[in-house]
Amino acid sequence: MIDTHLHLLPQLDDGPRTPGEAFELARRLVEVGVREAICTPHFSRRFPTDHERALAAHRDLTGVVSTARLPLRLSLAAEFSSAAVVEASPLELRRRRLSAGHVLVELEPDTPAALVDMATARLAEGGLAPVFAHPERCRAVRSQPHLLDRARGAGALVQIIAPSLVGRSGAATEKAAWQLLESGRADLLASDAHRPRHAERLERALALVRDHLGNSTLRDLTVDNPRRVTTEGGR
Question: Which of 65, 176, 183, 233 is most buried as measured by Cβ atoms within 10 A of its Cβ?
Answer without folding.
Answer: 176
